């Protein structure tokens, strides 16, 4: 289950790079890419949450980081809706997401 989550988050990260590129190049957001990014991240997060509540308590660190990632993602959405280019917010969102991804991969491929 966690391996599927890592795979989903790999796709989410690649889509996130495309979306971040659009922000830094001052382009409008990619329509379908935003929705794919959110939907795949939601499914991956639900898998992690389920696994955390069924025994792998190390994953609660990832859940805490995910709360910050989601909050920053909502802030990016709000800033983009007002026409701003939230470069620093995108950078923080991506940085925390990378840390969360590395931890998830470590927890996935390292036994308890």
List the SSEs and their pairings.
Layout: H1 2-24, H2 31-53, H3 60-81, H4 87-109
Can you tell me about this structure?
With 112 residues, the chain is mainly alpha-helical. It has one domain (2-109). The chain has helices spanning 2-24, 31-53, 60-81, 87-109. Helix 1 (2-24) runs antiparallel to helix 4. It is elongated.
Beta-strand percentage range: under 5%
What's the domain count?
Answer: 1
Query: What is the subunit arrangement here?
Result: single chain
Uncertain ranges: none
> What radius of gyration results from the CA coordinates?
14 Å
Mean pLDDT: 94
Helix content: over 70%
Which descriptors would you attach to this protein?
112 residues, elongated, single chain, 0% strand, mainly alpha
